[in-house]
Specification:
The chain is α+β, with helices and mostly antiparallel strands and 150 residues long. It has five helices and five strands; from the N terminus they run ααααββββαβ. Helices cover 38% and strands 16% of the residues. The strands form two sheets. Strands 4-3-5 form a three-stranded mixed beta sheet, with no helix packed on it. Bound molecules: zinc ion (ZN).
């Protein structure tokens, strides 16, 4: 077994530390540095050292679960990969009008729920449609019926 295959095997296991790091990333409002992730973990009573946080972040990047970039100050920041797809579209079933919507809250919830069940390499798809405000017959009642997906 070559070294990268061995590493992938390690990465596919969801350790308590890895789960905690992902939980913190899912709860943070945006990309975060290793230091701020470490601070958030400690604030949540997680006993974890900064070195382990770095190690977990590196393996999560390798596994494609999280992405990394640089902030304005040139510091490495980490984010859940779902952030790459935070723009979703709302399509009107009558006129076909398409509106962009920010789905980051739903995506964070989805990633958190999947991670809580030990999943990685998470993919989320959200199909949003309805009748837009411009289309008639949609009397504004202040309530909206939502049809759940089955
Ligand atoms: Zn419409």
């Amino acid at each position: 077994m070559d070294e990268s295959a061995a590493r992938r095997g390690v990465q596919s296991r969801m350790t308590p530390h890895r789960r905690a790091v992902l939980r913190v990333l899912a709860a943070l409002p945006g990309p975060a540095t290793a230091h701020s992730i470490h601070r958030a973990l400690r604030a949540g009573d997680e006993r974890i050292g900064l070195t382990i946080v770095y190690r977990q972040l590196a393996s999560l990047v390798d596994a494609g679960v999280i992405g990394t970039g640089l902030d304005r100050d040139g510091r490495h920041v980490f984010h859940l990969r779902t952030d790459d797809f935070r723009d979703y579209h709302l399509t009107c079933v009558r006129c076909g009008r398409v509106t962009r919507v920010d789905a980051s809250v739903a995506l964070r919830w989805a990633a958190d729920a999947a991670v809580a069940h030990g999943f990685s390499d998470i993919a989320v798809s959200i199909d949003l449609s309805g009748r837009c405000a411009r289309c008639p017959a949609g009397r504004a009642t202040g309530t909206t019926a939502v049809t759940p997906y089955r």
